[in-house]
UniProtKB/TrEMBL annotation:
Recorded family membership: Belongs to the Mg-chelatase subunits D/I family. ComM subfamily.
Annotated keywords: ATP-binding, Hydrolase, Nucleotide-binding, Protease
Keyword Protease among record annotations: yes
Name by which UniProt lists this protein: ATP-dependent protease
One of the Pfam families matching this protein, by short name: Mg_chelatase_C
Source organism, top-level taxon: Bacteria
Residue ranges constituting the MCM C-terminal AAA(+) ATPase domain according to the UniProt record: 293-388
Matches recorded under NCBIfam families: PRK09862.1, YifB family Mg chelatase-like AAA ATPase
GO terms (BP aspect): proteolysis
Repressor found in the keyword field: no
Length: 508
């Protein structure tokens, strides 16, 4: 038979749509053409496949070879189709049995020597293949990453010849093996932070309710140190969350370089801290073949933006959609791809250009106009979407020497956070930061006195409706930390205090 069909997978965001690689051997002058909307790297596969077959002492047919990648309207990119194309040629020419290809999918780039090289997006392809009931053959370098899908039937091979031997029944291809898991307790510990009781409290509240957080303080006061300790306070990700984060890392090409990299996104909530020079595309993703950006790589974890006013306005404004919806849509001429982006934002900024506005030392010489311009670099709508605004003062000389007694460890705080988060999941199935308007009205009912207090604060601080709703969500989280059934006055008062951005602001 001169026709063979091999099953494979394309890459489209964090999805892996099925591709049928159809290979036909016809009469005429020897040639090879690839159709089905292939990118340049796919068109170049004919040269890699020819050299790999010849290096492996396999016959490259002197026929007119047509390779169709179906469906034809789905863009194909990368070297992932090298292995299925080579196997299709071998099956169509009778060198391997075609029936062995029916219940298996194949991915892999071929070196000119016939060795198999890793490809991006192996984990999403593994999950999609498992849903069809087929098995999957991948390069050995993708094995640890693919093995994260524990129920999938994944086999690995080093070379094209090994794959052929396995299809002929001459040897068993080994099952993919997971790499050793990450060491426990590898996140920085909160016990390292001396002083800063107010900021530590805000960090605990943010962890308990998955609230966005802004630290405002002078240089060297510990803003970055505090932010780096948030992942250690968060509850461990569920199996589905860990698998989703690992799939995003795989789609971004972060999963196959080493066994450690394959496990980096597994079992630990991501913590991404891009530099303030990063572009808007680096944050939300993009490119000719859209790849996930930092907001998606931080999915189910933490995105830390230091020196917030130094970021470009365009980069910051693209955060609005993912902060509200938990997804980001990257649209290009050829396709539109949705990436998950349900992250927890932690931002840090100085109070003024020199960083010392409001400090007791009086060293700040910035004018009111320059301070206003500096803070105006961060738009009001973005600030509105951040639940907790926290002043972090300069450390005293005693705290700098380490004379202050150590605070609670991350383990102690994480236990309280886990208890509060469990209450939220039992109540609504989601953290408080994600409560809908209907759930907010039901779960955050206030007494008449507390409602008057909130109305007064909204008028005095000129709060938007969004800010008022975020105050209620934070108050609900504080009540959960206190194991309180209803929001009480002290919970609401503390929540209002986290919306007073300017130093010295107060509610009478």
């Amino acid at each position: 038979m001169n026709l063979a069909i091999v099953h494979s997978r394309a890459r489209s965001g964090v999805r892996a749509p099925e591709v049928r690689v159809e290979v036909h051997l016809g009469g005429g002058l020897p040639s090879m053409s690839i159709v089905g909307l292939p990118a340049a790297a796919v068109r170049e596969a004919k040269d890699r496949v020819r050299a790999a077959l010849q290096s492996s002492q396999l016959e490259f047919p002197a026929r007119r070879i047509t390779v169709n990648l179906a469906p034809a309207d789905l863009p194909k990119d990368g070297g992932r189709f090298d292995l299925p194309i080579a196997l299709g040629i071998l099956a169509a020419s009778g060198q391997i049995p075609q029936q062995a290809l029916e219940d298996t999918e194949f991915l892999g780039e071929l070196a000119l020597t016939g060795e198999l090289r890793a490809v991006d997006g192996a984990l999403p392809a593994t999950l999609a293949t498992n849903a069809t009931g087929r098995s999957l053959v991948l390069p050995l370098a993708n094995g640890a990453e693919a093995a994260l899908a524990a129920q999938a039937r994944v086999h690995t091979a080093r070379t094209l010849l090994e794959v052929c031997a396995g299809l002929k029944g001459q040897k068993m291809l080994p099952r993919a093996e997971p790499a050793a898991g990450p060491a426990a307790g590898c996140a920085p510990d909160l016990v390292d932070v001396r002083g800063q009781a107010h900021a530590r409290r805000a960090l605990e509240i943010a962890a308990a309710g998955s609230h966005h957080l802004l630290f405002l303080g002078p240089p060297g006061c510990g803003k970055s140190m505090l932010a780096a300790r948030l992942p250690g306070l968060l509850p461990p990700p569920s199996h589905d969350e860990a698998l989703e984060s690992a799939a995003i890392a795989s789609a971004a090409g972060l999963g196959h370089h080493t066994a450690h990299d394959a496990m980096r996104a597994w079992g630990i909530r991501p913590f991404r801290a891009p530099h303030h020079s990063a572009s808007a595309i680096a944050l939300v993703g993009g490119g000719g073949v859209p790849r996930p950006g930092e907001v998606s790589l931080a999915h189910n974890g933490v995105l830390f933006l230091d020196e917030l006013p130094e970021w470009s306005r365009a980069a910051l404004e693209v955060l609005r959609e993912p902060l509200e919806n938990g997804t980001v849509t990257v649209s290009r001429a050829a396709r539109s791809v949705d990436f998950p982006a349900r992250f927890q934002l932690v931002a840090a900024m100085n109070p003024c250009p020199c960083g010392w506005a409001g400090d007791a030392s009086g060293r700040c010489r910035c004018s009111e106009e320059s301070i206003a311009r500096y803070r105006a670099r961060v738009s009001g709508p973005l600030m509105d979407r951040i639940d907790l605004h926290v002043d972090v003062p300069r450390l005293s000389s005693g705290e700098l020497r380490g004379a202050a007694p150590p605070g609670e460890s991350s383990t102690t705080v994480a236990n309280r956070v886990a208890r509060a988060r469990h209450c939220q999941l039992e109540r609504t199935g989601k953290p408080n930061a994600q409560l809908s308007q209907a759930e907010l009205r039901q779960m955050c009912a206030l007494s008449d006195h507390d409602q008057n207090l909130l109305d007064t604060a909204a008028d005095r601080l000129q709060l938007s409706a969004r800010s008022v709703h975020r105050i209620l969500r934070v108050a609900r989280t504080i009540a959960d930390l206190d194991c309180a059934v209803a929001i009480q006055t002290q919970h609401l008062t503390e929540a209002i205090g986290y919306r007073q951005v300017d130093r010295g602001a107060a509610v009478a």
